[in-house]
Amino acid sequence: MFSLIESEEITFFADLILPIPVPKLFTYRVPRGMADILKIGARVIVPFGKKNSRVLTAVVAKLHNSPPTAYQARYISEVLDEYPLVTGYQLELFRWMAEYYMCCIGDVMNVALPSGLKISSQSKVQLNPDFDYPELLTEFESILLAELKKHPALSYEELGRLAGEGTNVPALIKSLVGKKAVIVFEEVREKYIPKMIRKVRLHPNYEEKEQLLVLLQRLEKLPKQQEVVMRYLSHVPMQRNPALNQKGLDKTILNQDDELSQSSLTTLIKNQVFEAFEVIQPRFSDNAAPQAEIKLTDAQQTASSKIMAQFEHQNVVLLHGITGSGKTEVYIELIQQALGSGSQVLYLLPEIALTTQIVVRLQRVFGDKMGIYHSKFSDNERVEVWKGVVSGQYQFVVGVRSAVFLPFDNLGLIIVDEEHETSYKQHDPAPRYHARDVAIMLAHWQQAKVLLGSATPALETYFQAKQGRYGLVELFQRFGDATLPNILLVNLQKEKRQKTMKNEFSSALHDALEANIARKEQSILFQNRRGYSPYMQCEDCDWTAECPNCAVSLTYHQRDAELRCHYCGHKEQVPRTCPTCGSTKVRTIGFGTEKLEDQLQIFFPESKVLRMDLDTTRAKNAYQQIIQEFETGQVDILVGTQMITKGLDFDNVSLVGIFDADRLIHFPDFRATERAFQMITQVSGRAGRRAGRQGTVLIQTQNPEQPILQKVIQNDYKGLYEEEIQERQDFNYPPFCRLIKLTVRHTDKIISHRAAERLAAELTDALGSSRILGPEEPLVERIRNQFLFDILIKIERDKVNIKAVKAFIQDRINDILTDKGLRQVSIVADVDCL
């Protein structure tokens, strides 16, 4: 890339992306020995901070020979990659996201790279070789230093174990450092650790038949050792194929939890009969072969052909297919075509729960050549998928929103399934990106095609399709001649008057569940609130349990007998009496998924009930276990939050019950009607997916006459769209404008409000009052002891330089943050806020 001028040595510099929230790149000096090996996109280790107090993993964004003018460049410490793990497309994506989402490029890199690709540092202690004043040490310190001499270095934890329980290790180290007896340093290491398998093989001296027979004869007097050798030969038939010996055998197979065989194997290794060695074992097996062929119905084949035809002149196509229409089979057909052309494919899903079921279906077609990427995987597993994409091992990856950051360089197709889902939007930390929109930009740079799929598309997406900016293909026939479910509204006011309610269950829903269980069919119940009860209240004085850090009530979780804040994680024990008046009449109000599960177990004690929400799916394989139990018919009723609405497919579900529909509809947000329709329609679509049996959906509501519920019953998405799009146009909301929300935060409400007022005033003076709303307190005005004020900015999509507007907004934010009286204020920008 660079040439050297005769007799003149060029000093190289690298502009690096550091994983910290600063707006600019940092320039570091490249040591002479690294000049020939350092490449753009490679990871490096660099010192950072005062006196180089921190060690960071950075990514090389640019190589040049211009030193920085504002500061003295420090040296790069170490190069981690022989071949870059970050592609040019990714660097371009990082830059675009930082600009578009009004954050720092370091924020983007920090989220994009899995933790396993970032180094960690650990303080270690070693003996100072120049120490020569033993008289300064206490008796205990002398003993400890004698032990320390036996080791090259020890971690704080290891030193603590040597010192013994109860020792103040930091104070001890401080004393030894003060006496210059030890040196404390940072040991830097990569977090990623390959999975290793310990194996053994016969020493090459015994690979020939004659030598092997001699060995077995020699071991006749040592029957246990002879048995271990024979056991090895039974698993490794090296006489038929000598090459098998080089691959060896897993050590645990020979040990067989038998102390005698373990001892014998150790002796055989010591005597060089066996060789011990280690091999890297991929965390994802590479043995499964494709087993199933996908055969499309006529309707699916027509949809697939139309999509390919649209791709001839459109880069983005929307597949609007009703629930149960078999969109997944269409995706598989398109994936096969893309892979057949030599391109890479990314398949995005909104929820880990959905990946669990979809992956099984895809593996039947593609085997284990498919990578899987989501946050429930360990750091090491995610690094292996990342490196697998770089090496070409994985041409096809299925993942959640973070999968858009994988190092693809030859994408042909991106599929965004359930594209309307809010899970694709990251809220914290920065970048607050939407994976669907990032995927479209990524595809644009790599000249790939994007397929957006949904039964209830986002209004903005459907608008783009109707305007001709996206292609549109519709699939309105359920797979296998299954029919859409029969949706019924249950009037809760009427049931309450007639006193037929059974706790939170209407008599209609209770009876339907009972009948479903008798038919040995399955049911799904949807309540979009976890926990046992939203809050606890005193009947005498109206005291309510509230979070001390946030302006919200604490949610009661009965199983753990505690009150929790779902915003900051604060926990409290359940009070026996009211803290205010001492009354014993402290009751739970409202209900969540945990309470429904509890009541179901009382109503139907012989039935198996499972719950799927954030509380029950924290463990790595919890999703998989719940879905497998339900799919195999071990569970009669599944209760869950919105996790269960997202594309799950179960043949035996014939009943869906929906609680609290009114709360979804009347949420104070301009998208509330759209989201209520999407959520209710999606969960309703889980019922009756098998041909020859129509499912039933019961929606419990206080007002059955609500227009939105009538549209749900009629599956009238187009009617909803026409009404909503007109209202959006009348009041200038997306898709007719861009929204940017600025949230001002401070621990002092007065300071927070003053900063928000000043920012809003400056923006209004420049942009006009019609474009600025607020500042206003959000629904939850205090979170983690910080008071919040929101400013909403509306920017027209046409005739406005949005890039210049964002730059102006950022300048005004910087003015606030550099004001001496407002320096502790934080201001968060959320572009395209939901």
From TrEMBL:
<dbReference type="GO" id="GO:0005524">
    <property type="term" value="F:ATP binding"/>
</dbReference>
<feature type="binding site">
    <location>
        <position position="565"/>
    </location>
    <ligand>
        <name>Zn(2+) 2</name>
    </ligand>
</feature>
<feature type="binding site">
    <location>
        <position position="541"/>
    </location>
    <ligand>
        <name>Zn(2+) 1</name>
    </ligand>
</feature>
<keyword id="KW-0639">Primosome</keyword>
<dbReference type="InterPro" id="IPR011545">
    <property type="entry name" value="DEAD/DEAH_box_helicase_dom"/>
</dbReference>
<dbReference type="InterPro" id="IPR001650">
    <property type="entry name" value="Helicase_C-like"/>
</dbReference>
<dbReference type="GO" id="GO:0006269">
    <property type="term" value="P:DNA replication, synthesis of primer"/>
</dbReference>
<dbReference type="GO" id="GO:0003677">
    <property type="term" value="F:DNA binding"/>
</dbReference>
<dbReference type="Pfam" id="PF00270">
    <property type="entry name" value="DEAD"/>
</dbReference>
<dbReference type="InterPro" id="IPR042115">
    <property type="entry name" value="PriA_3primeBD_sf"/>
</dbReference>
<feature type="binding site">
    <location>
        <position position="578"/>
    </location>
    <ligand>
        <name>Zn(2+) 1</name>
    </ligand>
</feature>
<feature type="binding site">
    <location>
        <position position="581"/>
    </location>
    <ligand>
        <name>Zn(2+) 1</name>
    </ligand>
</feature>
<protein>
    <recommendedName>
        <fullName>Replication restart protein PriA</fullName>
        <ecNumber>5.6.2.4</ecNumber>
    </recommendedName>
</protein>
<dbReference type="Pfam" id="PF18074">
    <property type="entry name" value="PriA_C"/>
</dbReference>
<keyword id="KW-0347">Helicase</keyword>
<dbReference type="GO" id="GO:0006310">
    <property type="term" value="P:DNA recombination"/>
</dbReference>
<feature type="binding site">
    <location>
        <position position="547"/>
    </location>
    <ligand>
        <name>Zn(2+) 2</name>
    </ligand>
</feature>
<feature type="domain" description="Helicase C-terminal">
    <location>
        <begin position="573"/>
        <end position="732"/>
    </location>
</feature>
<keyword id="KW-0067">ATP-binding</keyword>
<feature type="domain" description="Helicase ATP-binding">
    <location>
        <begin position="308"/>
        <end position="475"/>
    </location>
</feature>
<dbReference type="InterPro" id="IPR005259">
    <property type="entry name" value="PriA"/>
</dbReference>
<dbReference type="GO" id="GO:1990077">
    <property type="term" value="C:primosome complex"/>
</dbReference>
<keyword id="KW-0413">Isomerase</keyword>
<dbReference type="Pfam" id="PF00271">
    <property type="entry name" value="Helicase_C"/>
</dbReference>
<keyword id="KW-0479">Metal-binding</keyword>
<dbReference type="GO" id="GO:0008270">
    <property type="term" value="F:zinc ion binding"/>
</dbReference>
<comment type="function">
    <text>Initiates the restart of stalled replication forks, which reloads the replicative helicase on sites other than the origin of replication. Recognizes and binds to abandoned replication forks and remodels them to uncover a helicase loading site. Promotes assembly of the primosome at these replication forks.</text>
</comment>
<dbReference type="GO" id="GO:0006302">
    <property type="term" value="P:double-strand break repair"/>
</dbReference>
<dbReference type="GO" id="GO:0043138">
    <property type="term" value="F:3'-5' DNA helicase activity"/>
</dbReference>
<feature type="binding site">
    <location>
        <position position="550"/>
    </location>
    <ligand>
        <name>Zn(2+) 2</name>
    </ligand>
</feature>
<keyword id="KW-0547">Nucleotide-binding</keyword>
<dbReference type="InterPro" id="IPR027417">
    <property type="entry name" value="P-loop_NTPase"/>
</dbReference>
<keyword id="KW-0235">DNA replication</keyword>
<dbReference type="Pfam" id="PF17764">
    <property type="entry name" value="PriA_3primeBD"/>
</dbReference>
<keyword id="KW-0238">DNA-binding</keyword>
<dbReference type="InterPro" id="IPR040498">
    <property type="entry name" value="PriA_CRR"/>
</dbReference>
<feature type="binding site">
    <location>
        <position position="568"/>
    </location>
    <ligand>
        <name>Zn(2+) 2</name>
    </ligand>
</feature>
<dbReference type="InterPro" id="IPR041236">
    <property type="entry name" value="PriA_C"/>
</dbReference>
<keyword id="KW-0862">Zinc</keyword>
<dbReference type="InterPro" id="IPR014001">
    <property type="entry name" value="Helicase_ATP-bd"/>
</dbReference>
<comment type="similarity">
    <text>Belongs to the helicase family. PriA subfamily.</text>
</comment>
<dbReference type="Pfam" id="PF18319">
    <property type="entry name" value="Zn_ribbon_PriA"/>
</dbReference>
